[in-house]
Automatic annotation (TrEMBL):
The chain crosses the membrane at residues 278-296, 308-330, 336-355, 362-382, 412-431, 443-464. Coiled coil: none annotated. This is Phosphohydrolase. Residues 496-650 form the HD/PDEase domain.
Length: 704
């Protein structure tokens, strides 16, 4: 057990090493094939030179410099947001009233004083009362003489001046007034004050100073809302972009600083070539190879099969890359897109036939992505999506509709559907492009779609034999060829051992039906049955189905008879190898008897009283390694046993089939394949049903 696990680990490590090496080599080759397609076009141009040609932008990029200028202009164009404060007029009227009321109170205090207060002290008292107002209003400046005039005025004059001035201030502030327009309004108010008869001459200068100080802005700047408005204006400006295909400079035009800046921004100068596209290509290739690594690493097959599928898949993929690169190189000589000539379903069909549907699906996606890069044009986006989609639709059409390859008409049908899908996609491409294509252009694209579909089928059929021969693969097409009755070995079996030929056909019918019931490969089982007894052609008369009367075994020693019968498996394998038959067919030939015992000759030897080792009467094997080989071993024994049965009926057939299967299980013949008891029950049911249909009872016609 430990040795088996160790060997399995060694095989796993060696396959992973091979997988890593193959994928690394593929990635390196793919990188060098595709690097020119991502570098883009650059120019060796200097300032003030004349442009050698008309240069267009190879991509769409944001011109951040122009965008910022546009946003700054938009911000400057925003008017400040002002708020009108309707409480200001009454507040400023109160401000005027408060000054005069303080003056009246000070005047009253002076009048009520017991001693006469000097004028200087009176002025000091009034200035002290107005201190807070003076501190908060720097533009309110009253001289001592003006304060003395206030104190000298009578109470009625003060009250009259107060009321008149407060009214003027409140009325003149009842509309929006900003800080930058205060001076004209103050001058206007001063003029109105001078025209007020209710203000005495002595209080006129005081009223003017207070009135001018009372005029303040009623509409103030809202900095928060202004900032929000400016920000909204900036955000509303769409980024200025240099569009893909936009003309940057005309041929013969002087390279100005602005043009040079745009070329620099686009990375279209030799000195400004960016490594970003190259890094992007590396990421894409690593992603593709990662998918393939996981796909093959997790495939549950034997190492040899995995190795063959890996190499076949990679070789097909590399062939596709080289074909696409060659088409891309000559496409510059055409005004139309000749990428549509590429056989869109070639990779998918080959990998599907040589590997499986899952691998074909993954490789189709990977090939489409690579095609998008290789066929990438200077004025297209990151990928040439039309060609990528073209390959995706063509490839998956072949997976969906190429369900079987047992007939050449199946291949022709798949090619026809792929061609139809190609044409439909071309129609989509022409209509979505909204270009004014003429009849010649439309005819070219339709012809390209037809050529692509036909090439997919033709190249698949042409390349398939080379892959099968190089890697020893057994495809459906190869199996169909081997099932042709004109094959030399089948003709040899038919002419030299007609009984064996008929037996092989019957076993093939049984085995195919049983395999399809449990999901095994029915076609492989059928073809394997055709050749499983080819070794009997070496000594045909020693096998009962080919005898015409005399049985040579009647006069032979049991061990000699057993040796001849047992040898038909190894003789058949030798003959199959000589004709370069697939290993799967050779394995079926060697394994269809496993290591079972020739009980007839063993019992005959015992009846003769011979003490012989039982191994002399056992087949050399190996035991069946696959479900197909196990089913053929059962079907082979069942067909021979039922054919020798007298008056077979459903009950006898079922009992016989059960006995043969149980005998195989008890003899441990199925220990080395993954067939289950549940599957053996299904096989039993199918064999019984098929045999009942073959050996049904017939009407007994009356004798004349």
């Amino acid at each position: 057990m430990i040795i088996k696990r160790f060997n399995k680990l060694i095989h796993l490590i060696s396959f992973r090493a091979l997988l890593f090496i193959v994928l690394a080599a593929t990635a390196l080759l793919q990188f060098f094939l595709m690097i020119d397609n991502v570098r883009g076009v650059t120019y060796d141009i200097q300032l003030t030179e004349l442009s050698p040609e008309t240069i267009r932008s190879s991509k769409t990029v944001e011109d951040t410099v122009k965008t910022e200028i546009e946003r700054e202009n938009a911000e400057k164009a925003v008017d400040p947001v002002y708020i009108y404060k309707d409480e200001v007029p009454s507040q400023r009227a109160t401000f005027v009233t408060t000054i005069f009321d303080i003056a009246l109170e000070v005047k009253k205090d002076i009048a009520e004083a017991e001693e006469e207060i000097p004028q200087a002290e009176q002025i000091k008292m009034l200035r002290s009362g107005l201190k807070d107002i003076f501190d908060n209003h720097q533009n309110l400046i009253l001289s001592d003489a003006q304060l003395l005039n206030v104190l000298s005025a009578s109470q009625p004059n003060l009250e009259s001046a107060r009321d008149a001035l407060a009214t003027l201030v409140e009325v003149n502030l009842n509309y929006p007034l900003r800080k930058d327009s205060l001076l004209p309004y103050r001058n206007e108010l001063e003029s109105k004050i001078r025209q007020q008869p209710s203000i005495s001459e002595g209080l006129m200068s005081v009223a003017i100073v207070i009135g001018r100080a009372a005029i303040v802005e009623t509409e103030v700047l809202d900095e928060e809302k202004t900032a929000i408005a400016k920000q909204q204006a900036k955000e509303a400006v769409e980024p200025t972009r240099i569009l893909q295909g936009q003309i940057i400079v005309q041929e013969g035009e002087v390279i100005t600083r602005e043009i040079y800046r745009q070329l620099e921004l686009l990375g279209m100068l030799d000195s400004e070539e960016s490594i970003k596209p190259i890094a992007g290509l590396i990421i894409l290739i690593l992603l593709q190879m990662s998918f393939l690594f996981v796909l093959f690493d997790r495939t549950e097959k034997d190492i040899a099969s995995k190795r063959n599928e890996l190499l076949v898949t990679i070789i097909v993929y590399v062939i596709a890359l080289i074909m696409m690169k060659l088409i891309a190189l000559i496409s510059t000589n055409f005004d139309l897109m000749i990428a549509f000539i590429f056989p869109s379903a070639l990779v998918t069909m080959l990998v599907r036939v040589l590997a499986n549907d899952r691998t074909a699906s993954i490789v189709t996606i990977i090939t489409a992505a690579s095609a998008g890069i290789i066929f990438h044009e200077g004025l297209s986006g990151i990928l040439q999506m039309d060609t990528a989609l073209y390959i995706l639709f063509g490839g998956f059409a072949s997976i969906i509709f190429m369900r079987s390859l047992e007939k050449r008409t199946d291949i022709l049908q798949a090619v026809g559907i792929v061609t139809l899908v190609n044409i439909v996609f071309i129609a989509f491409y022409i209509l979505m492009g909204q270009s004014g294509y003429g009849m010649k252009e439309v005819a070219f694209y339709v012809a390209a779609a037809i050529i692509s579909g036909l090439l997919s089928g033709a190249l698949m059929m042409g390349l398939l034999p080379y892959f099968e021969s190089a890697f020893g693969l057994l495809s459906v097409v190869r199996l169909i060829e081997l099932s042709n009755p004109n094959h030399p070995l089948l003709k040899k079996i038919l002419t030299e051992t007609p009984g064996t030929y008929h037996h092989s056909i019957m076993v093939a019918n049984l085995a195919e039906a049983a395999c399809e019931a449990i999901g095994a490969d029915g076609l492989l089982a059928r073809v394997g049955c055709y050749y499983h007894d080819v070794g009997k052609t070496r000594r045909p008369l020693f096998f009962i189905e080919n005898q015409m009367g005399t049985n040579p075994h009647d006069t032979m020693a049991p061990e000699s008879s057993a040796e001849i019968i047992i040898a038909h498996t190894t003789d058949g394998a030798e003959l199959l190898r000589k004709h370069k038959m697939p290993q799967e067919i050779i394995d079926i030939c060697l394994q269809h008897h496993g290591t079972s015992t020739l009980k007839f000759f063993l019992f005959k030897a015992k009846e003769e009283g011979k003490e012989l080792d039982e191994s002399v009467f056992r087949y050399p094997g190996p035991k069946p390694q696959t479900k197909e080989a196990a089913i053929i071993s059962i079907a082979d024994s069942v067909e021979a046993a039922v054919r020798s049965m007298q008056h077979p009926n459903a009950e006898k057939i079922q009992k016989l089939v059960q006995t043969i299967i149980q005998d195989r299980v008890q003899d441990d013949q199925f220990d080395e394949c993954d067939i289950s008891l549940k599957e053996l029950k299904k096989i039993e049911d199918v064999l019984c049903e098929t045999l009942n249909g073959t050996f049904h009872s017939r009407i007994e016609y009356p004798k004349e």
